[in-house]
Amino acid sequence: MPGINEMHVDVFSPSFLGGDMVSGNVIIQLGEEFPAVNDLVIVLSGAERVMFQEKQSQSQSSSTSEGDDPGPIKTQQIKNTLFSNRKMLMEIHGPMSAGRYIIPFMIPLPPNLPCTCKFNGGDWKIGTGFKAMVSFKVKAILAGISPQLAGGASLRSATLQIRPTTTTAPKIALLQHRVRLVVNEHLDRVKMINTCTSTRPFHKGELSMTASLDNHTYFPGERILVKLNVNSSVTKPTSSINVHVDHTLDMCVGDGAMAHTKQLRTKVAGGIQHHPPFEPCYLGTRYIPFSLPTTLQPSTKSKHIKSSYELIVELEVPGNSIPIAFTLLAPHFMFGRPSIPMQQALSSLGNQSGLAVSPVSTGVTQAPSTPIPPEIRERPSWQPDSQATGCNQCGLHFSVLTRKHHCRHCAMIFCNKCAARKTPIANLKYTNAVRVCDTCFPAAQRGGVKRSFEVLQHL
Fold this sequence. Notes:
Radius of gyration: 33 Å
Number of helices: 2
Order of helices and strands: EEEEEEEEEEEEEEEEEEEEEHEEEEEHE
Shape: elongated
Structural class: mainly beta
Low-confidence stretches: 60-68, 147-169, 335-368
Helix content: under 10%
């Protein structure tokens, strides 16, 4: 009984950048003589594919009666080859004897490539289906003649394809194997901003918020830590702090005026996260975490596909909203510093997607997340109105005619007579004259007493 002929491509690295050298071995195991007719070649290629459904408008389709389907569903699709590099690895001058052959290879990737990615979703039954992917593969090919053997037997191989030519000519046998590669974009091509400030004036006072990120590149499963510096002279409390990450997928089929486009904007898993609000006249720093899902697809940009992420931080004030937005980079988790064990990821992807799996056990994991720093308040806590039934200095009982007033220096509640004077308080960052009580007025005139309170955050 004839032996089995097999070919396997082993790639040394699990992920690459544009311009990197892809290296590995082509391993050929021949259980019997292989009548090769062509040289052994290696092909490195990349491609993008876009497919999405769209419903034609009434003007594009024939009129329909009431209750009928509003119009036909058309599928737009395109497949674009990014590059294809072919290299001869070994000259073949005749049949190859049974045995084991290990042929090393090195072949370069073009620079500035998009990232390996795959997006799909929607419902193809109702016309909302879509699929977009960028893929890279390396493939080894060895062609031979497969003559019909005695008794009807022929060459056998797990990676062999028989292609008939004519009824009289011998059949062409292809011994081949391919693996998919993970390729990442060069992150240094994009200049990122990780600090933004927004100021909103109000009827009395203003609120200024500066948000900064601990990074601008995040991997699946990692935690984003937003540092918020808030300076408010507004006597209204904020209602909430909302944080969410939006993903935008832009797909395009065609060029110019004939192009068909589709944009999908969704919130990543976790939705909108709500955090405790700031009290009135708040001055301080708070850290807001947001955990990214482990299933996060990478951000990338090619000719027909664009995947991008945006972090939105909103400070909600009654009747108003102060948003700040950051663009995030999300590389593939197999590049740089993985957020889950590398070997587990490689095995999973290798089994599901045919990706190249390097036979090494790295066990590399992301360093544990650092503890969230405590909140720092630079002004005393605002005394709630419900806790004061009378002036903290003279004891006058509050009523509809006797209003409550907060001293901006000590944040306690007083009547109008005991907190009638106003002055800037430089050390508490009140640049305009604000109301202070009689007791605090001398110190406030000298710039005020600077305070700092640490508050542990329970999230």
